[in-house]
């Protein structure tokens, strides 16, 4: 049973931290696709492009294990969707979701810890454009990180740029938080924090 590596990502860790059957399936999925590992980008984890009659996928070099798998298969789903619909559908519409699900479900057949697989299968019922927006997936790929969701109400926390806030009231998936000057901010529950 595969358990994710909880140590910090190394420069050479990618697909090799996945179970061998998953690696084999993804390698088959990549047939005919130009695939590159690139320097980490701040706003995207991976990207698919179709240029010069060739599919190209780039994935950030700082991803590993499950996050690498989710991101790569996400981009491969764009390839399959393009091949079927030639750009006539929404990039993350139902057709893409169907392709993503069809590619992912064979990878979730007992190769991972049952707890991880159950969360991934649940996510695959209606995958979003970004797996990082799903709290359960975020907890799997970054099990030691703290999110605003983990901060008790009324407690002070810091965000990555060092600003401090107090967690106040929940609004569906986001929280009202107030800074030292009394200004209210709306912050997603999945935001990484220090407290």
Structure, explained:
- The chain is α+β, with helices and mostly antiparallel strands and 195 residues long.
- The protein folds into 2 domains: 15-141, 2-Layer Sandwich (Zincin-like); 148-188, no CATH class.
- Helix content is 31%, strand content 21%.
- A hairpin with a 2-residue loop joins strand 5 and strand 6 (174-179).
- Helix 2 (65-85) crosses helix 3.
- The longest helix is centred in the middle third of the chain and has 21 residues, at 65-85.
- Residues 1-13 have low confidence and may be disordered.
Kindly summarize this structure in a few lines.
Strand 5 and strand 6 form a beta hairpin. This protein is elongated.
Write the layout of secondary structure elements.
Blueprint: H1 20-29, E1 34-38, E2 46-51, E3 54-60, H2 65-85, H3 94-104, H4 114-124, H5 135-141, E4 156-158, E5 164-171, E6 174-179, E7 184-188
Parallel strand pairs: 1-3
Antiparallel strand pairs: 2-3, 4-5, 5-6, 6-7
Helix pairs in contact: 2-3
């Amino acid at each position: 049973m595969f358990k994710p590596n909880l140590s910090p990502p190394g420069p050479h860790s990618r697909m090799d931290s996945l179970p061998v059957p998953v690696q084999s399936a993804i390698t088959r999925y990549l047939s005919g696709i130009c695939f590159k590992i690139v320097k980490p980008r701040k706003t995207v984890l991976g990207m698919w492009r179709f240029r010069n009659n060739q599919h190209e996928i780039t994935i950030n070099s700082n991803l590993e294990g499950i996050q690498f798998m989710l991101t790569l298969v996400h981009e491969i789903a764009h390839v399959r969707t393009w091949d079927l619909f030639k750009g006539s559908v929404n990039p993350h519409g139902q057709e893409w979701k169907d392709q993503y699900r069809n590619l992912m479900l064979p990878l979730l057949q007992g190769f991972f810890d049952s707890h991880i697989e159950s969360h991934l299968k649940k996510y695959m019922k209606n995958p979003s454009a970004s797996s990082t927006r799903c709290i359960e997936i975020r907890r799997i790929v970054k099990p030691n990180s703290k999110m605003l969701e983990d901060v008790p109400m009324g407690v002070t926390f810091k965000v990555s740029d060092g600003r401090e806030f107090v967690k106040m009231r929940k609004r569906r998936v986001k929280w009202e938080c107030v800074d030292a000057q009394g200004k209210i901010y709306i912050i997603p529950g999945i935001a990484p924090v220090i407290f």
